[in-house]
Design a protein that fits this description.
flat; 8-stranded mixed β-barrel; 35 strands; 23% strand; alpha+beta; 29 helices
Length: 913
C-alpha cells in the first residue's frame, strides 16, 4: 500500500510537472494570440484607413490637377490671348464666353467661370444653369474687389494659383437650399507684355469632390467618414445637418473640434496618425489640393467601430479560446500518459548511445585513437571521404595511411604539436586511398580519463573542403574576371597595378570605351555583342607588350596600364595604331560591323600618384574625347576636368530648360535682293539660363544631340515655329515661310513626317509655308533611311533645303538622288569676300544649283560688296546682318507691322498716281 501511495505521489508530481507548465504556456499563448489578433485587426483597419486616405489624397490631387489644367487651357487659348491683347475687347468677348461655356458644358463640374479685371469688376462671367450655361450680360456684372479670393488672386505671379476655402453658394446673403458647396480656384491673367490684367476664377462644385471622397473611402468594415476644414468644422459628415454650420448666422457652430476635443488636439499636434478611444479607431490625415500647396488643406477623418474585436464577438478570438481549451484537455491527457511513462522508464538513453548516433550521422569524418595513436573507431563519413574500408584502417596509426613522404613529414609535425599543446587545428592537403589529393580542415585533440587524468584517447575530426574550394574559386573568377572577355575586373586590375606602382616610376593608365556598343548590342543582340567585345579585347592585347596589364571596367570599357612608359609621343603612336585596328570591320553573322572608340590617358606621377585618381582622370579624358568626337584619344589635363564638369553642368541645366521656359526662338529674315522684301524667316534656337546666362547654340546643341534631349527640344522648336508663323499670317501682307533646322537624331529616332503632318493640321498652316533644313553630314550616316523620311515630308508639301552646303562631305550624289528645293551656301564661303576670298567657290555652288534647278540662299551676308557679288552671280535671296540680325518675336512682329504699313502707303500712292 505504501509503495502504491509513493507511485501515486510520484505520478502526481510528474503530472504537475507536465501539466502546469503546459497550462501556463497555453494560457499565455492564447492571451498573446488574442492580443495579436486584436492588434492585427487594428493594423488591418489602420492599413485600410491609410490606403483609403492615400487614395483620397491622390484623387483630390488629380481633381485639382484637372482644374488647374482647365484653367491653363483657358489662359493659353488664343481667345484669351486675343481678348487681353486687343484694345477692342468687345469683338473678342463672345469668343471667350464661348470658351467658358464649352468648358462648363463639357466638364459639368463648374458653377461659374469669370474674368475679373484688376479693378475688381467682372468683365466676363458665365453661369451654369439646369438647362446649360448662361453668359451674364455686361450690365449685370458685379464688383468682386472686396472678396478674399480676389484680394489673394490679384497678388499671384505667373504660374501660381490660389484655392479659396470650401464654402456654400450664397443667395441674398443666405446659403442656397439645397446647399451647394463650392471651391474657387483663381489664376492670374497676363498679356503678352507680361502685364497682369486680372484673374480667372473657376467656381468648382465641391460636391463632386465630396462624393469622390465618400466613394474612395468605402470598404467592407463599419467606417464613418468625415471631412473637416482647418478650424475643425464639418464639411462632410454622416449627419449632414452638422455640415457647414460655421456659415450659420446664429453662430451655433457644431464642429468636430467641439465633439471630439481630444482627437482634435491630436490632429493639431500630429497632422497624421491614429487615435484609439477604446470604442472606435480614428485615422486622420491632411489632404492638400496639390503636392507642395500649403495655403489650404482639409482634414480627412475616418472612424471604425471596435465592437467586432471583442473576445466573444470576434470569430478569430472565439476560435483561439476553443483551441486553447482543446489544448489544455490534450495536455492533461499527455500529462497522465507522460507521468506513467516517466515512472516506468527512469533512465534516459545513455550518453554513449547519443554520442554514437552523433558520430555515425556526422558529415565530418571522425577518427578515435587510443593512447598509442592506433585507430579504434571511425564513422561512415571517414570511409566516404577517404575511400578506405573499415578493416583497412582499424588498429593502424593515421601516419601509416600516408604514402607521400612530404605528407608523412607534415603529419609528424602535426602530432608533435598535438602532444606538446594538447590539440591542433588547421588546413592541409591530404591523400585518399587512390592517391587523390584533397584539401581538408582537421582538428586533433587529446582526451584524458576523468578519474586518473591519464591520456586515454586522441580525437580527430576533419572536413573535406573540395566543394568549398571549388565554390571559392568560382566566386573568385566571377568577382575578379569579366565573364565575356576573361579579363581581370577593376578590383583585380587595381590590386595588380598597386603592386606594379611600387616597382616603376613611369606608368600610363589608359581608359578605352567602345562608344557605340549599346547601339550595336540593341540591334545585334547579346551573342553578337559578346563577339564584338571578345574581338576588341583580342585586338587591344595584340598591341600591348608583355609587361602591360589589361582589364575590363564595364561591359563596353577597357583599362590597361602601359608599364614603364610615360613618353606621350610613343603612347600617342600606340593609341593611333589601336584606334586604326579597332576601326577595322568585324564580321558578325555575315555583316560588317564598325566600332567607335574614345580613349583617355592619365600619367602616373604627372597627373596623380593615386591609382583611383588616375582611373578617374582617364575616364574624364575619355569622356572629353567622346564629347569632342569619336575615334580619338586625349591626355588628361586640369583644363579638361574643368571643361568636363562645365559640360556636365550644362547638360544638367539643359535637361530642365523646357520645363523652366528658358528656351526661345529668334527669327532671321530671308530677303529678296532685288526688292529688299522679306520672303521668309529662319527660326533660330536660343537658351538663356538663370545660372549660365545666354548659352551659345554651338555649345548646347551638341550636348542635346549626344543625350537625345534634342528630340523634345526639336519637337518644341518645330511646333513653336509653326504656331508663331500661323499667327504672323494675319500681320504680313504676303505669306511668309518659316525655316526650321532638323537634327540627325530627330530624323533617325522619331516619325518626323507624322509629327509635321499633325502640327500643320493642328495650326491650320499651309505646308508650303514650312521649310526644313538638314545638313549634308546627316546623309552619310543613313542615306536610305533619311531619303525615305525626306520623301514623306516633301509629300506633305513641305520644302526641304540642304544647309551649310560645302562644309561637310559635299557629295553630289546627295543632290542628285534626293529631291531638294533649296541649297544654302554657308557663310564661310561669303564672309571673307572680297579681302581674302575671290568668291570662286560660291560662284561654283550657285552655278551648280542653277544646273540642278535649285533655289539658292546665301547666309552671313554683311557688306554691300558681298550683296553686289551675289546679285551679279544670280543669287536672289540672302540672309545676314546686311539687312537684319536674328530678331526676337516682338522685334520681328514690329518689323512686319512696319513693312506692312510701308507697303500699304506705297499701294495708296500708286492708286493716286
Amino acid at each position: 500500500m505504501e509503495i502504491k501511495n509513493k507511485q501515486t505521489k510520484q505520478r502526481l508530481e510528474y503530472f504537475i510537472m507536465i501539466f502546469v507548465p503546459g497550462l501556463l504556456i497555453v494560457v499565455l499563448f492564447a492571451v498573446g494570440f488574442i492580443n495579436i489578433n486584436i492588434d492585427n485587426n487594428k493594423n488591418i483597419i489602420k492599413i485600410r484607413q491609410s490606403n483609403s486616405g492615400a487614395i483620397v489624397s491622390v484623387n483630390v490631387n488629380s481633381i485639382f490637377e484637372d482644374i488647374n489644367s482647365d484653367g491653363n487651357i483657358i489662359l493659353n487659348s488664343s481667345e484669351m490671348k486675343d481678348y487681353v491683347g486687343n484694345s477692342v475687347k468687345a469683338t473678342n468677348s463672345d469668343e471667350l464666353k464661348r470658351i467658358f461655356s464649352n468648358m462648363m458644358a463639357n466638364k459639368k463640374i463648374y458653377d461659374s467661370i469669370r474674368f475679373i479685371g484688376n479693378d475688381g469688376y467682372e468683365q466676363i462671367r458665365v453661369n451654369a444653369t439646369t438647362n446649360g450655361t448662361f453668359a451674364i450680360p455686361d450690365n449685370a456684372l458685379d464688383y468682386k474687389g472686396d472678396y478674399d479670393y480676389f484680394q489673394e488672386g490679384i497678388k499671384l505671379n505667373s504660374g501660381e494659383i490660389y484655392i479659396a476655402p470650401m464654402d456654400l453658394m450664397v443667395d441674398n446673403e443666405h446659403p442656397e437650399i439645397p446647399i451647394k458647396p463650392v471651391i474657387r480656384v483663381v489664376s492670374p491673367i497676363f498679356n503678352e507684355k507680361n502685364e497682369k490684367v486680372g484673374i480667372l476664377v473657376l467656381n468648382y462644385l465641391a460636391q463632386n469632390m465630396l462624393n469622390q471622397i465618400e466613394s474612395d473611402s468605402k470598404n467592407d468594415i463599419d467606417t464613418k467618414i468625415m471631412l473637416l476644414n482647418e478650424n475643425g468644422h464639418y464639411l462632410l459628415n454622416e449627419n449632414s445637418n452638422k455640415d457647414y454650420l460655421f456659415m450659420d448666422e446664429d453662430g451655433k457652430v457644431g464642429s468636430f473640434s467641439q465633439d471630439k476635443p481630444e482627437i482634435w488636439q491630436a490632429i493639431l499636434k500630429n497632422g497624421l496618425g491614429n487615435f484609439d478611444d477604446g470604442k472606435e479607431l480614428y485615422y486622420y490625415t491632411s489632404i492638400y489640393p496639390f503636392e507642395g500647396y500649403q495655403n489650404l488643406h482639409w482634414i480627412l477623418v475616418s472612424a471604425t467601430s471596435l465592437e467586432s474585436l471583442g473576445l466573444f464577438t470576434n470569430e478569430d478570438n472565439r476560435t483561439i479560446v476553443f483551441i486553447a481549451a482543446l489544448l489544455i484537455f490534450m495536455i492533461a491527457i499527455i500529462g497522465l500518459v507522460g507521468s506513467w511513462l516517466l515512472l516506468i522508464k527512469k533512465e534516459a538513453n545513455s550518453r554513449e548511445k547519443i554520442t554514437d548516433r552523433i558520430f555515425k550521422n556526422s558529415k565530418e569524418g571522425i577518427m578515435i585513437m587510443d593512447a598509442k595513436m592506433q585507430i579504434i573507431y571511425i564513422n561512415k563519413a571517414f570511409l566516404t571521404i577517404t575511400g578506405y574500408q573499415e578493416d583497412e584502417v582499424m588498429g593502424k596509426k593515421p601516419i601509416d595511411l600516408k604514402v607521400s613522404e612530404n605528407l608523412k613529414a607534415v603529419y609528424k609535425g602535426i602530432w608533435e604539436m598535438v602532444n606538446e599543446e594538447g590539440n591542433w587545428q588547421g588546413e592541409i592537403i591530404d591523400e585518399k586511398k587512390d592517391g587523390t589529393q584533397y584539401p581538408k580542415y582537421i582538428t586533433i585533440s587529446q582526451i584524458f580519463d576523468s578519474k586518473s587524468d591519464a591520456l586515454s584517447n586522441y580525437l580527430e575530426v576533419f572536413e573535406d573542403l573540395t566543394s568549398i574550394k571549388k565554390t571559392e574559386e568560382a566566386i573568385n573568377i566571377i568577382k575578379h574576371y569579366d565573364e565575356v572577355t576573361g579579363l581581370p575586373t577593376q578590383v583585380l586590375f587595381e590590386k595588380k597595378i598597386h603592386e606594379v606602382m611600387k616597382q616603376y616610376d613611369q606608368l600610363a593608365i589608359v581608359v578605352l570605351q567602345i562608344t557605340n556598343f549599346n547601339s550595336l548590342y540593341d540591334n545585334l543582340g547579346k551573342k553578337s555583342g559578346n563577339i564584338l567585345m571578345k574581338e576588341a579585347s583580342r585586338r587591344i592585347q595584340a598591341l600591348l607588350s608583355g609587361a602591360d596589364y589589361l582589364g575590363s571596367i564595364l561591359k563596353d570599357q577597357f583599362v590597361f596600364a602601359r608599364i614603364n612608359s610615360a613618353d606621350k609621343l610613343k603612347i600617342g603612336h600606340l593609341m593611333n595604331k589601336m584606334i586604326t585596328d579597332l576601326r577595322e570591320p568585324i564580321e558578325v553573322e555575315n555583316e560588317k560591323v564598325y566600332l567607335n572608340v574614345s580613349i583617355g590617358i592619365a600619367l602616373f606621377q604627372e597627373d596623380s600618384a593615386d591609382l583611383e585618381k588616375l582611373i578617374e582622370y582617364g575616364n574624364i579624358a575619355k569622356n572629353y574625347a567622346h564629347q569632342a568626337g569619336d575615334n580619338t584619344y586625349v591626355f588628361y589635363e586640369k583644363e579638361i576636368k574643368a571643361n568636363y564638369l562645365s559640360n556636365l553642368k550644362l547638360e544638367t541645366e539643359l535637361r530642365s530648360a523646357l520645363e523652366k521656359n528658358e528656351l526661345s526662338l529668334n527669327y532671321q529674315p530671308q530677303v529678296e535682293i532685288d526688292t529688299a522684301e522679306i520672303i521668309a524667316t529662319e527660326a533660330l534656337l536660343r537658351w538663356n539660363n538663370a545660372e549660365l546666362g545666354k548659352v551659345n547654340p554651338d555649345q548646347f546643341i551638341p550636348v542635346a544631340e549626344r543625350t537625345d534631349l534634342i528630340i523634345p527640344i526639336g519637337n518644341w522648336v518645330l511646333e513653336e515655329a509653326i504656331k508663331q508663323n500661323k499667327k504672323w499670317q494675319s500681320i504680313s501682307r504676303h505669306p511668309l515661310a518659316v525655316s526650321v533646322n532638323l537634327s540627325p537624331i530627330q530624323l533617325k529616332k522619331t516619325d518626323l513626317p507624322q509629327m509635321i503632318a499633325e502640327l500643320l493640321k493642328k495650326y491650320e498652316m499651309p505646308a508650303e509655308l514650312l521649310e526644313i533644313e538638314i545638313t549634308e553630314g546627316i546623309l552619310v550616316d543613313n542615306m536610305e533611311g533619311i531619303s525615305s523620311q525626306l520623301e514623306k515630308i516633301k509629300t506633305l508639301g513641305v520644302k526641304v533645303a540642304i544647309d551649310d552646303f560645302g562644309m561637310g562631305y559635299s557629295s553630289l550624289k546627295y543632290l542628285r538622288n534626293l529631291n531638294f528645293d533649296k541649297l544654302k551656301i554657308d557663310r564661310e564661303f561669303i564672309k571673307d569676300y572680297p579681302e581674302k576670298d575671290n568668291g570662286n567657290i560660291a560662284k561654283m555652288m550657285i552655278n551648280l544649283a542653277e544646273q540642278m534647278d535649285l533655289k539658292v540662299i546665301a547666309e552671313g551676308v554683311e557688306t554691300a560688296e558681298q550683296l553686289l557679288f551675289l546679285k551679279e552671280n544670280n543669287c536672289r535671296v540672302i540672309q545676314g546682318y546686311y539687312f537684319y540680325k536674328p530678331l526676337s518675336v516682338d522685334e520681328f512682329e514690329k518689323l512686319m507691322a512696319k513693312t506692312v504699313s510701308q507697303s500699304a502707303f506705297q499701294m495708296i500712292s500708286q492708286e493716286k498716281d
